[in-house]
Design brief:
The protein contains 11 helices and 4 strands. With about 260 residues, the protein is mainly α.
Length: about 260
């Protein structure tokens, strides 16, 4: 009867299915409770029914701000653009360091610094020991950390499942790329800081593309392409966000055109 259809459905789920399918069905229910999260109820005024959603599927697929919606995808793309821009800036600074260490002359005497009348200092050479210490303890670890942080940061951002987590992850990554400046400000002596402030820039020819317009287009296009690639990879690869949304909708809500349970019911 239409009046007791809800009670009959609940009886089928709680009594008939466990009796019919045994421990396998009970295991399925337990895993669903863990994967789907907290159950939330809403009153549907149109059909005058209590509608039940599960937290994970609601955040991932069925909610207005779900992960698979276009607004969230656009927001994630903007965050990835900002992250890649920050890492490209770090990458270019490391490249300049490598180029400077390659081109900077070696001088074993004490005439590596030149003082000027305006109280500034120029570096014209470095001792070989200083150069190798800089490469070993600074450039090599910094290069490895830059590459690892780039890939780890992308995965860290992609794994977020709502706007709040995505913003918090972005702030955390922004903190990480500033750790070297924080360490210098906290640990370096005042004399060292003053010397660094008074240093004149070291002039050298870079390995750029020649035309500054081409350089701008190259780095801009690279950032846009990287952000597009990683977002497409996160959503459309096998087992990606699109497949995860379909799976959670089927598992938790038993709905969707690709869900066998929905077709049976």
């Amino acid at each position: 009867a239409p009046d007791n259809r809800v009670e009959e459905c609940v009886n089928v789920q709680n009594a008939y299915c466990p009796h019919m399918f045994g421990e396998r069905y009970k295991y399925y229910i337990d895993k669903s409770a863990v994967l789907c999260g907290e159950r939330m109820s809403f009153w549907n005024r149109t059909s005058k029914l209590r509608t039940v959603f599960y937290e994970r599927s609601f955040r991932f697929a069925t909610g207005a701000d779900a992960v698979v919606t276009k607004p969230y995808m656009m927001f994630l793309y903007v965050i990835l653009l900002i992250w890649f821009a920050a890492m490209v800036q770090e990458f270019r600074e490391i490249l300049l360091w490598w180029l400077m260490m390659y081109k900077l002359p070696v001088d074993e005497t004490e005439h590596c610094l030149i003082s000027h009348e305006d109280h500034t200092v120029s570096v014209v050479a470095v001792p070989s020991l200083h150069k190798w210490i800089t490469i070993t303890l600074n450039l090599v670890p910094r290069s490895v950390i830059c590459i690892g942080l780039l890939l780890t940061g992308v995965r860290f951002l992609i794994r977020a499942e709502d706007y709040a987590d995505l913003i918090l992850n972005s702030v955390a990554l922004g903190f990480l790329i500033e750790v070297d400046n924080m360490l210098f400000a906290a640990l370096a002596s005042d004399t060292c800081k003053h010397l660094v402030r008074e240093l004149r820039p070291y002039r050298m020819r870079t390995l750029g593309l020649g035309n500054w317009n081409l350089q701008t287009l190259f780095w801009t296009g690279g950032i846009i392409a990287l952000a597009l690639y990683f977002e497409a990879w996160s959503y459309f690869r096998p087992g990606g966000k699109e497949d995860m949304g379909v799976a959670l909708t089927c598992l938790c809500q038993v709905s969707g055109i690709r869900c066998v349970g929905s077709q049976v019911l």
